[in-house]
């Protein structure tokens, strides 16, 4: 087919050393490589973690007192205090962080799709599923740190929690966050270069999910259709479980339902995410 | 290194089916430097993406670096470097972090990828930029980082999709210098797409012209020009006797195009070998007693080739 004859330059030539991972270990090694790249961003710039706590802190500082004022004794004890409100509200805010941060994680990917670095990653021999799983797994660690920070900040105002159940609660949240993160990544891949689509879907889901979880205001006061809708919201079970766990109890059916909700969200998210990764090129 | 047969890709958007690549056959031997040339939307990038296993062909097959692109995509990817149209480096990352990440993606040991990253940064004039964020780099630096990322696995085969688009002429020349040097150094086969005619002409040893998803010509640039286009000679003579000029011109030339030029005539003729023919023509006119006041020969360009093959000018399409 070619018309010219070429002699390959042999001087200075290094024999290419190609390394290929194979077998079942490949998935785990590849996932670790992707995870390392993602977590690097957090490690290199830890202040973004702190800044992303600003919004939940505003909720705590400005919304919390209103709750106390409005509901007074609505939280069980006679003449509810700030401490009682915090005990009810903080676990909800911690769940809120998990939803805010992880649902936005796709925007990073969206950006990488647009600039071209996602294509570069796809052109490497990385396992396709690992590209998604490694990214989604990264949501776990920041949530643990952020949740703990919020809880500690509230201690001076009368918030109390037991470390072990609370840590379990945060781990549960991490699992949930992986699922939401994976869904956000799938949304980013489906949006491709249509940024508005990503933000449109993310924003229009965020608040209905939050409100219908009883995170900000008790749903007991709402109409029955809202209570029914809340039953289909996995976030409801997360909020319930976190309240019980931060209250220091393990043995409660709410915890069990929380575990189920987190596990299902995680599994569905990863499945949808992996499918989106394999499909989108 | 590459063997593709009947490579086809159809996209369906809504109810419309677009045949982007229509059964391409192409072979690339080890060590070649091949440019896929064609207008935007001709199917160059789609072909490249199928050869790099990023896009699954609708039909046909391709073996790249010894492996089938559909059956063993990971093996294919492990053996090639791919530099896409966008920027490979994540904008929020530091330069050195991204190179190390890339090494981990290829399963390299830390001491290997660290050494390669340092080595490539030095070779590609990225020394001193290790700790800078990709975002803060200039366009040319970012493109050199793309090349470094594409070479972290020391691939025997390098693909570049529109590598110099968007770069200023100086950065383009600089990037080409680096690509050529890296090719020598690693003995790589290089396949690229471009719509820059002069780039394909001066850099590639072989040009594959693609239009509407099909290969319409495939040869060395010189051969393509000899086969599909003519050089042209333009002379101004000090006579207005057209018949005399035509009679004086050598017989092997094409039909002359004469236009009035001052008191004389401008003569345009096409010929296969302009540089050699020009003095012959001047001499023939002189013998016939016609004085030539100015003369020039223009070599055929790849655009002439494209124009003759398709009836359209690639230069105008690129500008449009």
Automatic annotation (TrEMBL), chain A:
List the Pfam families: ABC2_membrane
Please give the chief subcellular localization of this protein: membrane
The record's InterPro entries line, in alphabetical order, gives: ABC2_TM (IPR013525), ABC2_TM_bact-type (IPR047817), ABC_2_transport (IPR000412), Nod_factor_ABC_transporter (IPR051784)
Topology versus the membrane: Multi-pass membrane protein
- Source organism of the structure: Krasilnikoviella flava
Annotated GO MF terms:
ABC-type transporter activity
Q: What is this protein called?
A: Transport permease protein
**Does Cell membrane show up as a keyword for this record?**
yes
Query: Which PANTHER family did the record assign?
Result: NODULATION PROTEIN J (PTHR43229:SF2)
According to the entry, every stretch annotated as the ABC transmembrane type-2 domain falls at 47-280
Q: Got a GO cellular component term for this one? A: ATP-binding cassette (ABC) transporter complex
Entry keywords, A to Z:
Antibiotic resistance, Cell membrane, Membrane, Transmembrane, Transmembrane helix, Transport
Indicate the family of this protein: Belongs to the ABC-2 integral membrane protein family.
Q: Which GO terms describe its biological process?
A: response to antibiotic
Q: Where in the cell is it found?
A: Cell membrane; Membrane
Instruction: Give the signal peptide range.
Output: none
Xref: PROSITE patterns = ABC_TM2
Q: Which residues cross the membrane?
A: 47-68, 88-111, 140-161, 167-189, 196-217, 254-274
UniProtKB/TrEMBL annotation, chain B:
Kindly list the places in or outside the cell where this protein is found, as annotated in its UniProt entry: Cell membrane
| Ranges for domain ABC transporter | 2-237
Q: Name one Pfam family in it.
A: ABC_tran
Q: Give any GO molecular function from the UniProt entry.
A: ATP hydrolysis activity
Q: Which UniProt keywords apply?
A: Antibiotic resistance, ATP-binding, Nucleotide-binding, Transport
- How does the UniProt record describe the way this protein sits in the membrane? Peripheral membrane protein
Q: Which residues form the signal peptide?
A: none
What InterPro entries does the annotation carry? AAA+_ATPase (IPR003593), ABC_transporter-like_ATP-bd (IPR003439), ABC_transporter-like_CS (IPR017871), ABC_transporter_ATP-binding (IPR050763), P-loop_NTPase (IPR027417)
Has the keyword Transport been applied to this entry?
yes
GO biological process: any one? response to antibiotic
Q: What is this protein called?
A: ABC-2 type transport system ATP-binding protein
């Amino acid at each position: 087919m070619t018309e010219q004859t070429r002699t390959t330059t042999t001087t200075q030539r290094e024999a290419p050393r190609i390394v290929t991972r194979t077998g079942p270990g490949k998935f785990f090694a590849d996932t670790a490589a992707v995870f390392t790249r993602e977590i690097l961003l957090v490690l290199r710039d830890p202040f973004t973690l702190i800044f992303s706590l600003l919004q939940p802190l505003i909720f705590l500082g400005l919304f919390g007192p209103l709750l106390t004022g409005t509901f007074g004794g609505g939280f069980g004890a006679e003449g509810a205090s700030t401490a009682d409100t915090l005990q009810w509200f903080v676990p909800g805010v911690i769940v809120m962080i998990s939803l805010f941060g992880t649902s936005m994680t796709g925007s990073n990917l969206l950006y990488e799709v647009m600039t071209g670095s996602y294509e570069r990653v796809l052109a490497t021999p990385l396992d396709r599923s690992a590209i998604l799983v490694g990214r989604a797994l990264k949501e776990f660690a920041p949530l643990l740190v952020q949740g703990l920070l919020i809880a500690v900040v509230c201690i001076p105002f009368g918030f109390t929690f037991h470390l072990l159940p609370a840590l379990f609660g945060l781990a549960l949240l991490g699992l949930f966050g992986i699922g939401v993160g994976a869904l956000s990544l799938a949304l980013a891949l489906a949006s491709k270069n249509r940024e508005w689509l990503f933000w449109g879907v993310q924003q229009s889901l965020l608040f209905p999910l939050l409100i219908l979880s009883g995170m900000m205001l008790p749903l007991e006061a709402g109409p029955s259709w809202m209570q029914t809708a809340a039953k289909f919201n996995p976030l409801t079970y997360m909020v319930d479980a976190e309240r019980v766990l931060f209250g220091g109890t393990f043995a409660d059916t709410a915890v069990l339902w929380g575990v189920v909700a987190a596990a299902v969200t995680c599994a569905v998210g990863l499945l949808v995410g992996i499918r989106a990764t394999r499909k989108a090129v | 290194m590459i063997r593709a047969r009947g490579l086809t890709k159809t996209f369906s958007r809504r109810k419309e089916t677009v045949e982007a690549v229509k059964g391409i056959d192409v072979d690339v031997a080890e060590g070649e430097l091949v440019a896929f040339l064609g207008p935007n939307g001709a199917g160059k990038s789609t072909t490249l993406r199928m050869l790099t296993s990023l896009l699954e062909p609708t039909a046909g097959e391709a073996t790249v670096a010894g492996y089938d692109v559909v059956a063993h995509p990971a093996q294919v990817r492990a053996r090639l470097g791919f530099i896409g149209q966008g920027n490979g480096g994540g904008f929020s990352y530091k330069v050195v972090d991204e190179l190390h990440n890339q090494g981990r993606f290829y399963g390299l040991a830390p001491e290997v990828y660290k050494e390669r990253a340092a080595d490539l940064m030095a070779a590609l004039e990225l020394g001193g930029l290790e700790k800078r964020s990709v975002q803060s780099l200039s366009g040319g630096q970012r493109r050199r980082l793309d090349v470094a990322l594409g070479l972290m696995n020391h691939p025997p085969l390098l693909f570049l999709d529109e590598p110099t688009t968007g770069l200023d002429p100086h950065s383009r020349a600089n990037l080409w210098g680096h690509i050529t040097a890296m090719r020598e150094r690693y003995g790589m086969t290089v396949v690229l797409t471009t719509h820059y005619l002069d780039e394909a002409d001066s850099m590639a040893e072989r040009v594959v012209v693609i239009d509407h998803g099909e290969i319409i010509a495939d040869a060395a640039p010189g051969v393509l020009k000899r086969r599909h286009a003519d050089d042209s000679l333009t002379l101004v003579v000090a006579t207005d006797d057209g018949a005399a000029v035509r009679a004086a011109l050598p017989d092997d030339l094409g039909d002359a195009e004469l236009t009035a030029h001052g008191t004389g005539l401008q003569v345009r003729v096409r010929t296969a070998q302009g540089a050699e023919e020009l003095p012959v023509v001047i001499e023939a006119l002189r013998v016939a007693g016609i004085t030539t006041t100015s003369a020039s020969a223009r070599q055929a360009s790849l655009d002439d080739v494209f124009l003759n093959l398709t009836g359209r000018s690639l230069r105008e399409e690129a500008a449009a």
